[in-house]
Design goal:
The protein is α/β, with parallel strands linked by helices. It has helices at 6-17, 91-103, 120-138, 154-163, 176-182, 188-211, 236-250, 277-292, 297-302, 316-323, 337-340, 348-357, 365-369, 375-378, 398-402; strands at residues 47-51, 57-64, 109-113, 143-147, 166-168, 223-229, 254-259, 330-331, 382-383. It is globular and about 75 Å long. The structure holds iron/sulfur cluster (SF4).
Length: 414
């Protein structure tokens, strides 16, 4: 077979990278201008968006170094036994593509992952080499996110942190049993060991930076991971518990949830259907509850049903509030920030406005209505100067009243 040219490799290796959600703000609806109508597309691959440490949304060239792999993870299109077109960049080719796209203003950085060729160490060396050439030979100051390989030599993983803004190590599956079954070449202890080493190096570098002005930076945008949802029998409670433990143990910036999508030539051990996209959405919402709303993992788990699954028709915050109605109503003129954040329909910004406004005046229902998209969702759970939800809060059909009409939600829909 003739060797692939650079553009062909780019097509193959950008497409192969689209399954990794760990740099993404993905999940929007599919649109394109293929029929000659309109302009733009949400379906292309190769460039993804991520948030820089200062909050800017940046575009990244998202590719694999190679989709050859000696591992055989059942859920992965690039696994050894998969019948796909293969390609492999040299480090120099990735550098040239990154610089060419950067100079044309298409991208502000690089997200680079890889299948495992020859050995974990060899692959990690190649990934690090790309980042080294960019930083040292071209003084590249754009964003670099490197996926690291947990089995690789810790010294190589450390080098990745010296060149990259963010590093990530995928835990892949929520349970060790799931990992053993679906990714038999991977080892949960080695994955978490590599995350632990990365955390220690990040903490140490931050400490040195405080003491020595010229101490080298080390993964200043921290580390992240990805969990595949729906490929094994793990429940949402399992996933929430695992994510919480990862945040606590390894100080991760983000856990990304990626709904398993059936792949061509799928292994027989995989489910035939992908889980509903809204399940991924509910997990992201539960993640926000833990990171920004002060919920503990066990509280998010309380919002799940007997099967450990979050409801799909209502968000986890509303599910929790409906289960613990005795904690409501919350007085918008008196209650703590912590309790206001529990009110369905009130986001962090709305709560901050409530706290600021009530210093000036006593708040009425219309004041709260001005801060939220749906006052109908908020009303049963609050008390205001002119509002008390006496009968509404106790209605047996409150859930049905508040649940939106059933439809497939879009991830990150406003
Ligand atoms: S290690 Fe597993 S998940 Fe990663 S590319 Fe290879 S087969 Fe896919």
């Amino acid at each position: 077979m003739r060797p692939a040219g650079l553009l062909e490799k780019l097509e193959i290796l950008a497409d192969a990278a689209k399954y990794d959600a760990s740099c993404a703000s993905s999940g929007t609806s599919k649109r394109n201008s293929a029929g000659g109508k309109g302009i733009g597309s949400t379906e292309g691959m190769g460039i993804c968006h991520a948030y820089a440490p200062d909050g800017r949304c940046i575009s990244l060239l998202k590719i694999l170094l190679t989709n050859h792999c000696v591992f055989d993870c059942h859920y992965c299109i690039n696994r050894k036994s998969s019948n796909v077109r293969r390609a492999r960049f040299t480090p120099q080719e990735v550098v040239e593509l990154t610089l060419a796209f950067y100079r044309r203003n298409y991208i502000e950085g690089l997200f680079l992952s890889s299948g495992i060729v020859k050995s974990s160490d060899h692959t990690m060396e190649q990934l690090v080499e790309v980042a080294r050439i960019l930083r040292e030979e071209h003084d590249f100051r754009g964003y670099i996110h490197l996926k690291t390989i947990p089995d690789a030599d810790p010294g190589l993983i450390h080098q990745a942190g010296l060149y990259a803004d963010r590093v990530s190590i995928n835990v892949e599956l929520p349970t060790d049993a799931g990992l053993t079954r679906l990714a038999p070449d991977k080892d949960a202890r080695r994955i978490e060991g590599a995350m632990g080493g990365m955390k220690a190096a990040i903490v140490q570098a931050k400490d040195e930076k405080k003491r020595f002005k010229h101490a080298p930076k080390f993964a200043p945008a921290g580390q992240s991971t990805q969990m595949i949802v729906g490929a094994d029998a793990a429940s949402d409670a399992d996933i929430v518990g695992k994510a919480s433990r990862l945040y606590d143990s390894f100080k991760l910036r983000r856990v990304y949830y990626s709904a398993f999508s059936p792949i061509p030539d799928a292994s027989a051990v995989l489910p035939l259907k992908r889980p509903p996209l809204v399940r991924e959405h509910r997990l992201y919402q539960s993640d926000w509850l833990m990171r920004f709303y002060g919920y503990e993992a066990r509280e998010v788990m309380q919002a799940t049903g007997e099967d450990g699954m979050l409801p799909l028709d209502i968000d986890p915050k509303l599910a929790w509030a409906l289960k613990f109605r005795e904690r409501f109503p919350v007085d918008v003129n008196r209650s703590s920030r912590e309790m206001l954040l529990r009110v369905p329909g009130l986001g962090v910004r709305a709560v901050n406005h409530v706290l600021a406004a009530r210093r000036q005046r006593t708040l009425r229902l219309e004041d709260v209505a001005a801060l939220t998209v749906s006052i109908a969702k908020v009303r049963p759970f609050i008390v205001a100067a002119d509002w008390r939800p006496t009968l509404l809060a106790d209605r047996g059909d409150l859930r049905a009243l508040l649940a939106p009409p059933s439809e497939q939600l879009e991830l990150f829909a406003a």
